[in-house]
## 1
Amino acid sequence: MGQDKKVAIVTGSARGIGKSIAAKLADNGISLVITDVMIDQAEETAKELAGKGVDTLAVKADVSNFKEVEDLFRKTVDKFGAVDYLINNAGITRDNLAIRMTESDWDLVLDINLKGSFLCAQQAAKIMMKKRSGSIVNISSVSGLLGTAGQANYASSKAGVIALTKTLARELGGRGITVNAITPGFIITEMTEKLPDDVKEGYLKQIPLKRGGTPEDIAEAVNFLISPAASYITGTVINVSGGLVI
Ligand code: NAP
């Protein structure tokens, strides 16, 4: 029996940008795996999105843990029979000036943001290669393009995500798989709500479009990159930042 519905895994999708991405894909009838470290919230989100008439599955997985990532993909294939799209969205910050940054904060951010994206892409690629189709979208950040004071760990991880994107695009293109990245700018979520007011105002001053982005702005870009309209686009980085980076 052929698979009629497309299936997406969105990491870190219990809330924030990941939840908006999942909601956008649900609007297109895509079956969704809501995966996060917070299972209660992931289950709540999965239930909410099922209200849009799509099949959903909530899975607890820490993307930096090889075994949990393997289980995540196994559970997805057991339920849906495939993975058509992977959105590597899970990410954290642990900001501090480089001279004060602890080794554990460096390791944690690199493990979740960069290794986590790699581990998920590795599992996704194994499944997508057999089908000779699929799309991976990695959520990087403008910090990975510019560098940001106080974010040596985060900016390095997000620059790494861009290099990972380009490498995977080269390795997987021959199997019909596209791999692209998005660099959000200043997006209003719980992650950025935590920033001091002067930092937030500083960002807004530098944005030509004069507003912070919304999670929906990122979801629209993801939706485009996995759509047939983007089938000849791979290895690229789409900057969704209101012009913060030009
Ligand atoms: P968020 O609200 O903090 O959401 C991130 C989600 O990922 C949270 O639910 C978080 O759970 C989860 N997560 C954390 N560690 C995880 C792990 N090890 N395994 C699986 N899930 C994990 O952040 P957001 O603002 O939506 O950001 C989403 C992505 O966009 C991130 O990659 C971020 O770097 C990127 N981004 C955001 C902005 C922005 O302005 N907001 C700008 C550029 C890029 P917990 O809450 O339990 O940690």
## 2
Amino acid sequence: MTRLRIALQKSGRLATESLKLLKKCGIRLNINEQRLIAHSDNLPIDILRVRDDDIPGLVMDGVVDIGIVGENVLIEEQYEREFINKAASYEKIRVLDFGQCRLSLAVTSEFDYQGIESLNKLRIATSYPNLLRKFMSSKGYEFEDCKLKGSVEVAPRAGLADAICDLVSTGATLEANGLIEKDVIFRSRACVIQSASNIDQTKQELINKIMSRINGVIQAKESKYIMLHAPKDNLQNIINLLPGAGNPTIMSLTNREDMVAVHAVSSEDIFWDTMEELKLLGASSILILPIEKMMG
Ligand code: ATP
Ligand code: ZN
């Protein structure tokens, strides 16, 4: 069988999380910082470590089988290819729980912003001209392009543009540059994409196996294992407080006729206020444990 090729960002905001995810899926890797390719020694998988901007194209051209990339970079590449009539097919097979950010329009504090129409025909600096073009034209506005691959946030002060359209997560970078976020044009997360070209059956089975492991890892992260002692006469009320805890295990306690032990998996984290409510209902010895892996 030919080896499955997965493209990941080499270094940057998605790099560590992407690698961590694959490791949690049981893919053992020997990463050499200098090398483009890393081979797994326990599965027929090769990892290609590249710039995030290259990942959608590598998947769309069938050079790699799957890739992990931000939806912002993915859709920008798709629109770019549509624009120049280049094949852009791929399949998005799942969104992930990291890389959250938004693509926003921002202006300086002196700018009299009355809504997106205030930007009509002005110059906007961005690394995402295609996403911006689609958005502006859907609203019926035009703009002058100023494509910058980096330092977008300094463009207004440097007199290069009237506004910017850039990625924001906390907003700290905008603030540090005296910019105010006005409108969100796109929300993004990291996602897994698969090539639309023919993939042989054994390879596809391996992809399915990895995807099912990814589901298990993400589900486990969101879930908690709960153990507590509950008074029998308040058992149902206590169980009702545990989110998504289907059918908990109930066990008897030695020398306590009035109490039982409850073990349950909840589909969400349990916060302090829920624990306090459980205690008020008579629960004791409450333990909340993280779950390492999960399978249906
Ligand atoms: P590369 O060298 O791979 O081209 P880069 O500098 O283009 O890296 P990063 O800054 O590492 O990219 O961001 C990678 C991705 O992380 C973004 O495309 C986006 O999907 C996501 N991301 C999450 N939060 C942010 C943020 N605050 N700013 C920028 N990107 C973010
Ligand atoms: Zn990039």
